Structures are given as C-alpha cells and as structure tokens.
C-alpha cells in the first residue's frame, strides 16, 4: 500500500493551523536529547546487517528525565503505540491518524512529540528485529522470530532494512534540528520576526513529517512478515518481490524528502543560533551596567538559554521565579573540594544562622576541566548535586558555551579555582568574589557585598572568634562558659610534649583552659590528655588564615598604615619552624594574643612554680604577668583576714605577680 507523503500539493498553512490548534503544552518537560540518543542507538543496532558486535550505549532509558508530567515515559510510549500500530487503509486514513497523534501529544513540546513517536518506532522494531538478529546464535531467539512470522535469514530483509535505515537517519537528523531550535533562548532576545516565523513554520512541518513518516514505517510491518510466508510458489515470490520494491521505494522517497527538509531547516536553525549568540554576547557585555527591576532577567540570561527548568536542589526542579527577591551567590568551580564544603558549613550549618538564610541561595555552576564533560565528571556532579543543600545547574553540560566563555573572559574564572560572584535582589553584581568573606564570617557576611566586607573588618579585630568561630565545634560552648583558649602549633614533637605537660599541670591548678593543637601528628602527651586533635579543624584553620590574608591584601592595597590582623596572619603563614620551636595564641572569644612558643613555655613554667598562689588569675593574665620582671626587693601587703578569705589571689602592685599568703597574729 502506498502512502503519499509529499505535502507540496497541500496547503501548508492549513496543516500548520491544524497543528497549532492541537498544540496545548502544559509545562511538562522531557529530556528529548537523551531519549533520542537511546532511540538512535536501538534503531541503528536492529537495522544494521552485522550485529556480531553489540553497540555500547552510555545512557540508560531509565535515566531519561520527565518533569511535571502526569504520565511516565513508558506509559506515554505505550499509549502512543496503540494509535500508531493500528492499520491504516490509504493516504486519507494515515493523514487522519497523523493528526490524531498530534491531539494525543498536545501537552508536549514539539521536540518531545517527534522523539516520543520515534520512541514507539524503536520499541516496535527493536522488539521485532532483535530476535531476527540473534537467531543465528540463540535458538530461543530463532523460535521467537518464527512465531512472529519473521524471516530468520536477514538477507531477505536487506533491501528493506537499507531503505528503512536511510529513512530513520533522516528522521533522527531532522529531530535533532527540532531539539536544537526548541532549546534556543528565543524569549531572551529580539530576532527578526520574518526569520523566526519561517523557522517556526518549518519546525511545525518537520515535526509533522517525522510523525507521519514514523507512522508509515509501522504500517509496513505486515509486509516484511509476508517475507516468511510467501516463499512457496513462484507467483507468490514474484508478488512479494514487487511488494518489496514498492515498499523500498516508498521508504526511500520518504527518506530523501526528509533529507531535503533537514538541509533547509538546519540552515535556518543555524542562522537563528548565530543571531542569538551575537545578541546574547552583547547582553552579557552590558550585564554589569544595565539597571534591572529584580534578578530575574539576569538569571534567565545566564541559565535559561536552553532549558525552562535549569536548576535543581537535590532531586527537586527549581524554577528561576523561585529565586526572586533573594541574594544569589554564584559558585563557580570544578567538582567540590574542601573549601566548598566549608563554605556550605558556614552558610547552612553554622549555629549562628538565623532567618537570614532564607534570603539567599547558592547556585553551583560546575565548570569542567575541558570543553567536553567526561563520564566521571558527570557522575561526580550527580553525586554532589543530590547530596548537598545548594542549588545547582541541572545539566551543566548543556550550559551555553557563550555563558561559560563569558565567565572565563569577563569574570576571570580560571581552572582549578573556585569563586563566588554575588548578585543582589536587583540583579546587580555587588561582589565579584565573596569566597574569602564567606569562609571568614559565614552568614554574618550577608548580603555578601564589598561594602559589607569593609564593615566587617571595621567591626572585627584579631580575636579567637575570628580564628575559630565556625571551625571548632566546641568554640560556641567555650565562649558561653567564659573559658580561655590556647591554640598552638609546632613541628617539634618534644616541645609539643613539654607544652601539653605544662598545660595539664596549669589546668590542675584550676585554670579554665582549652587547648587546640594544630599539627599533622598526635604526640604521646596528647594521647594521655583530652586535647581535641582534628585534621579537619587544622585544614579549615589554615584555610581561614589564607582567606584573611587575601581579604586584607585587597583592602590594604598600597596603604602603609599598619594592620594588626594582617601582620599576625602573615607571621603564622610564614612561620619558620626551623628557627623556632612553635607558636601559641591565647585569649577568649573577642581577644587574642600571639606568643612565641619558647617564651610561652618559659612563662608556663613560672605559673606552675607559683602553684596555688596563681589561683584566681586568668591564663592570659598569668602569661602576661610572667613576662614582667619580678620586684628586686620583697615587700609586704597587709590584708584584713575577712577580706583575704574572699580574695583568691593578691598581686604585687609593681610587677603584678601573685604574692605568697601568710597569716600574721598581733
């Protein structure tokens, strides 16, 4: 049976009008590109002559994503196949069936309509031809082919398979053009209406041709079943031969018509893509100078070029409209490393986080090490995007190359680094790299602007809070209890053992002192003490020091005004462990004093010698007193007995050292 597929004699405007009347998308989204890859893999395998080497597919049909749809992908394909596999008698009926399929697919976008129909084609021919291909090595497959009235000898199907393969390739190529056009950000730019109108019209007609051609292919299934039956007489064989030539001619005609359409449509889509890229580039160049009412235009420009649902949080799809009136932190990086985990801890898990966390969101934009994403990079992205609380670009490998190049060229993003670009609620970029301020202050840095960073440095000086807040898990508790803290570090394990031993004796005197040791090794003295040794705390501590140094360098610039924080941080980062045994930082939450390691242990020995006479002093106070020279002459201070009972320690007015207590009788 011949199905006329050339619509040149028909009024294309009428067909387009009918197609548009049946087109009523409801927002559902199908990953048509991934599904088409699977369809192409299936059809290329079952339609080839040599199947001794199976085709390896990178994807899996179960990984094809469908969002906001009331039906699953297998159910949709099954529902469509019911209509497509019904016999059609003549051109009029196949035309009517084609339009009925568009009514059935009205909720889907144009690319999804074409791909779903090709999915039916792949499922049907895959199920029919796979047993034929496997029959030569699998008796069970041979039996299935025989029961389905299919020829086991593939040579009988070769002419038909060749023409069908040509048609399938043409349908796939045309569908790729439709997908590419559907992903163009037409709404984000202003193109020539005439060019867009002609391209849209051809997209509608191309979808129509793909659906109608797929339907025509399925109508030939009874024909190649007859190949097995009509071999008994010469007359039947001659009739079969004529039917085969007719079927092959029909498929070839459909294929050449689609090839011609593909050439025309592909050029139109490329022209639209070129114009869009030029306009997008111009918009990106003006992105920092234009005034916006909110952040929506900028977010759509950056992320919605190829997708209406470009973002996700865990497995939930995020629409850009959900981010309106929020400060956006754009995190550009390769797959996560330690600083990024700390960043999340600072912004999501920090104890001091309040309702301000509802007013901002992190959007992770992973940038691969090369132009093409590897399978390993995709797996790493899937793991982290589904495990961490940030929002991420849903399929970053689909991110426009124009946008990625913009990040590298205009924002100076470099490989093997991470940066956080901050956009306020009005779509203005207020900080081109807030990574350091977030690593230092976490949620306190909200709204993460350069101005806020300046304010924070005006408010904060060299203190334990600057060094440990958000890093050490017990810091908040220590601050509430008013305990003093001593951070110390050294590569000299003998010195560390001595320091820990002295610190334990001082603690036994009643000093409320907590120790934080920063080194790569745990010493014997630490094994016997309660000092918390955490490699994570150590890494985060040095990471914060580096962030403080970078932040200060940006602010100090060429200024020669001394900066205590910068000087102290530089000393620690450049500390010469060969020339010095170690270092220590002592203080409470809002205070901190840096002391050379040898001087620190020398003073701690003196405190131990004072024994119970040092009770009542704070550790920092005792260290400072121990640094002073003692009085050359002894002297006595008389304190009434009742007063002496309430005063735990009496210090010398001159050297501030604790004085020995004696009871005198008069």
From TrEMBL:
Superkingdom, natural source: Eukaryota
Residue spans crossing the bilayer: 114-136
Alphabetized Pfam families for the sequence: SEO_C, SEO_N
Location of the Sieve element occlusion N-terminal domain: 11-292
Keywords associated with the record: Membrane, Transmembrane, Transmembrane helix
Ranges for domain Sieve element occlusion C-terminal: 452-666
PANTHER family recorded: PROTEIN SIEVE ELEMENT OCCLUSION B-LIKE, PROTEIN SIEVE ELEMENT OCCLUSION C
Protein's UniProt name: Protein SIEVE ELEMENT OCCLUSION C isoform X2
Organism: Camelina sativa (False flax)
Gene: LOC104787799
């Amino acid at each position: 049976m011949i199905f006329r597929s050339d619509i040149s004699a028909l009024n294309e405007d009428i067909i387009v009008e009918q197609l548009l009347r049946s087109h009523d998308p409801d927002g559902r989204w199908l990953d048509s590109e991934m599904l088409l890859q699977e369809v192409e893999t299936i059809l290329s395998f079952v339609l080839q002559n040599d199947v001794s080497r199976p085709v390896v597919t990178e994807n899996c049909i179960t990984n094809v994503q469908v969002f906001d749809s009331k039906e699953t992908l297998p159910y949709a394909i099954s529902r469509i196949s019911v209509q497509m596999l019904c016999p059609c008698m003549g051109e009029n009926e196949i035309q009517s069936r084609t339009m009925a399929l568009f009514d059935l697919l009205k909720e889907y976008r144009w690319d999804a309509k074409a791909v779903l129909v090709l999915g039916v084609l792949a499922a049907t021919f895959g199920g029919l031809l796979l047993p034929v291909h496997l029959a030569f090595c699998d008796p069970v497959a041979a039996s299935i082919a025989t029961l389905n009235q299919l020829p086991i000898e593939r040579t009988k199907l070769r002419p038909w398979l060749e023409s069908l393969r040509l048609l399938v390739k043409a349908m796939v190529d045309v569908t790729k053009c439709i997908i590419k056009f559907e992903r163009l950000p037409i709404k984000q730019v202003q193109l020539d209406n005439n060019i867009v109108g002609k391209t849209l019209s051809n997209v509608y007609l191309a979808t129509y041709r793909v659906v109608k051609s797929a339907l025509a292919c399925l109508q030939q299934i009874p024909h190649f079943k007859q190949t097995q039956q009509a071999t008994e007489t010469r007359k039947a064989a001659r009739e079969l031969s004529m039917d085969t030539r007719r079927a092959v001619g029909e498929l070839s005609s459909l294929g050449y018509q689609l090839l011609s359409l593909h050439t025309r449509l592909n050029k139109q889509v490329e022209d639209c893509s070129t114009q869009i890229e030029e306009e997008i580039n111009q918009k990106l160049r003006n992105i920092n100078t234009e005034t916006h009412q909110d952040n929506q235009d900028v977010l759509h420009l950056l992320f919605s070029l190829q997708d209406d649902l470009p973002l996700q949080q865990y497995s939930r799809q995020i629409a850009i409209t959900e981010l309106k009136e929020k400060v956006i932190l754009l995190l550009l990086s390769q797959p996560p490393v330690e600083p990024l985990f700390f960043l999340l801890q600072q912004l999501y898990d920090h104890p001091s986080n309040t309702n301000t966390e509802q007013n901002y969101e992190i959007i992770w934009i992973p940038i691969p090490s090369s132009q093409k994403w590897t399978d390993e990079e995709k797996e790493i992205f899937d793991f982290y995007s589904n495990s961490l609380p940030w929002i991420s670009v849903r399929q970053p490998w689909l991110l426009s190359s124009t946008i990625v190049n913009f990040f590298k060229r205009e924002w100076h993003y470099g490989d093997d680094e991470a940066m956080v670009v901050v956009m306020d609620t009005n779509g203005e970029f207020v900080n081109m790299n807030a990574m350091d301020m977030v690593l230092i202050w976490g949620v306190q840095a909200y709204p993460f602007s350069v101005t806020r960073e300046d304010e924070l440095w005006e408010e904060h000086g060299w203190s334990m809070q600057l060094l440990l807040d958000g890093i050490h898990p017990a810091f908040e508790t220590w601050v509430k209890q008013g305990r003093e803290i001593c951070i110390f570090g050294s590569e000299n394990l003998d010195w560390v053992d001595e320091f820990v031993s002295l610190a334990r004796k001082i603690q036994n005197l009643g000093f409320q002192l907590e120790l934080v040791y920063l080194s790569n090794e745990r010493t014997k003295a630490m094994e016997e003490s309660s000092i918390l040794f955490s490699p994570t705390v150590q890494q985060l501590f040095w990471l914060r020091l580096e962030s403080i140094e970078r932040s200060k360098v940006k602010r100090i610039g060429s200024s020669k005004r001394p900066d205590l924080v910068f000087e102290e941080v530089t000393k620690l980062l450049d500390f010469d462990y060969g020339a010095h045994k170690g270092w220590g930082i002592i203080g409470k939450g809002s205070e901190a004093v840096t002391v050379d390691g040898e001087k620190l242990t020398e003073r701690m020995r003196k405190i131990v010698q004072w024994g119970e006479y040092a009770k009542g002093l704070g550790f920092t106070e005792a260290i400072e007193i121990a640094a002073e020279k003692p009085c050359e002459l002894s002297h006595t201070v008389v304190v009434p007995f009742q007063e002496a009972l309430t005063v735990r320690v009496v210090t010398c007015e001159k050297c501030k050292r604790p004085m020995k207590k004696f009871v005198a009788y008069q």
